[in-house]
């Protein structure tokens, strides 16, 4: 199993553990309040949405990832969203590890 698949499996696990938030407004607020440890932005998100979240993440020094399409993220989580935030540091650390290998 490749790392991409591991990340998607872990994303599903993160959701079942209740450590995943989604929807633009909720994740944006969490970024501003520094309540999120890692952000997934779908690579096929709209240009302005993608830029807004990348800029916010950089400003608040929160790691983010653009490797997956909406379809991949939605399939992994069972939700129809473009933006996902991981709220728990342990999961965030594991995502960073898998995505930099």
TrEMBL record:
It holds the Pfam family Ribosomal_L7Ae. Gene3D superfamilies: 3.30.1330.30. Residues 6-93 form the Ribosomal protein eL8/eL30/eS12/Gadd45 domain. SUPFAM superfamilies: L30e-like (SSF55315). InterPro entries: Ribosomal_eL30-like_sf, Ribosomal_eL8/eL30/eS12/Gad45. This is Ribosomal protein eL8/eL30/eS12/Gadd45 domain-containing protein. It comes from Paucilactobacillus nenjiangensis.
